[in-house]
């Protein structure tokens, strides 16, 4: 893995939790030093939770700048998940203490941020260091949040499924209904057409 552009100060950004039924969408933005090297760093989806937790403090300590932001279900339901993902990434970029000259984004769509040029890269979290680092921060921060709210609603087992639409999660929705942490505009159950909320 490498920087996208050798000479420009670039920020990588990525999000976690877009396909979940509950919890926030979380995004991170990371600027890494040009000489940063780590053989373990990769797309968060291909790493174990142990490796992600190991990498998080390394990224936070070594990054030139980083930011992490969340957009919660009420807002997701108002503006839709795609716009919420862009908003979370913008909020993460807002936190950077250094202005990047280029933003590289995991995926194929992005809303322009300020006047900074951006480049969308499909599967960018497996190709470029700063996007991989952003994917790790987004995933670890979101997982920690889901484990925290699991204490409030243990019947959904969010500490394990992290709000994703597993069979177990959907069965719990069927049995206990929706919580304030669920996204009301999402198709929570396979056979539902509209939520009666």
In short:
Helices cover 36% and strands 15% of the residues. It has 197 residues and is α/β, with parallel strands linked by helices. It has a single domain, classed as Ribonuclease H-like superfamily/Ribonuclease H (Nucleotidyltransferase, domain 5, 2-Layer Sandwich).
CATH architecture: 2-Layer Sandwich
Biggest sheet: strand arrangement: 3-2-1-4-5
Number of contiguous helices: 6
| Tally of domains | 1
Main structural class: alpha/beta
Can you identify the CATH class? Alpha Beta
Helix content: 25-40%
Largest sheet: 5 strands, mixed
Query: Total strand count, please?
Result: 5
What is the H-and-E element order? Answer: EEHEHHEEHHH
Catalytic activity: Endonucleolytic cleavage to 5'-phosphomonoester
Family: Belongs to the RNase HII family.
Subcellular location: Cytoplasm
Protein name: Ribonuclease HII
Could you list some keywords that capture this structure?
single chain; RNase_HII; alpha/beta; 5-stranded mixed β-sheet; RNase_HII/HIII; 5 strands; Nucleotidyltransferase, domain 5; 197 residues
Structure in words:
This protein is an alpha/beta fold and 197 residues long. It has one domain (10-150): Nucleotidyltransferase, domain 5 (2-Layer Sandwich). It contains 6 helices and 5 strands. It has a 5-stranded mixed sheet, with helices on both faces. α1 crosses α4 and α2 (73-79) crosses α3.
Helices, strands, pairings?
Blueprint lengths: L9 E7 L8 E7 L17 H14 L2 E7 L1 H7 L1 H14 L7 E5 L11 E4 L7 H22 L7 H4 L5 H10 L21
Parallel strand pairs: 1-4, 4-5
Antiparallel strand pairs: 1-2, 2-3
Helix pairs in contact: 1-4, 2-3
